[in-house]
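Changelog note: in this version the structure field was regenerated for every chain. One regenerated record is shown below for reference.
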Amino acid sequence: MIAQLGTARTNHESIVTWEPLPKDFKLEDDPVENDGQPLLAGALRESLELSGLIQPQMLIVSNFGLCATIDDRIVVKAPDWLYVAATAPTESTRRSYTPHAEGDIPTIVMEFLSDVDGSEYSVKRSFSPGKWFFYEQILQVPIYVIFEPEGGLLEFYQLQNDRYELVLPDPDGRHWIAEINLFLGTWQGNKEGRSGYWLRWWDESGTMLPWAVEQIDLERQRADQEREQKERLMDYIRSQGIDPDNLPST
């Protein structure tokens, strides 16, 4: 079924409609371009999940088919990471996502640079359109992030007057995303055998959302502090000539 409400016309007069992908449509099964991309994408989701910020209606996936129909021809792009705030319920496993027909347009789309062909910046309008043109003009995704993992360069683009504009970070090097009430920025360190730059989330107070291994370390530190406090209390009680193991019952 075509979502007529979402029908749009690009500035080169192509007609865009929003139709769920046919069940017999064969999606390309291209591998990710390097083994670091799944780690980067997984880390972004992991901290959101640990912080209780993922709801059932959301769609947070990586290397996943994002679809539109342009002049009766299906276009599928697979961003390295995408976030959709609200999707329609489905009884089957999603194999792709078509905005308007299946829920909201994505709030954020991310691409991790890994090649030299500049496809993340492509404004090619003819079939099949470039990534930049597809996200900006066809889907009109509010936020487009391009991240270069080797050097840690984060380019944050926001849709303004139907065009992506580069937004500079705040003094802490982060970008506030009002739609999800979080900051996005870069962090350098180690995780799962990968050493380098990562994309991380910070809450409104400036606290970085932890990964699982960091959460475990924090809980261990709290347990150690509580044990040390208890030991100091026991030592003080003994210094007063009181046996802490034979305190009178109340």
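Spot check on this record: Confidence is low (pLDDT under 50) at residues 1-9. The longest helix spans residues 212-239.
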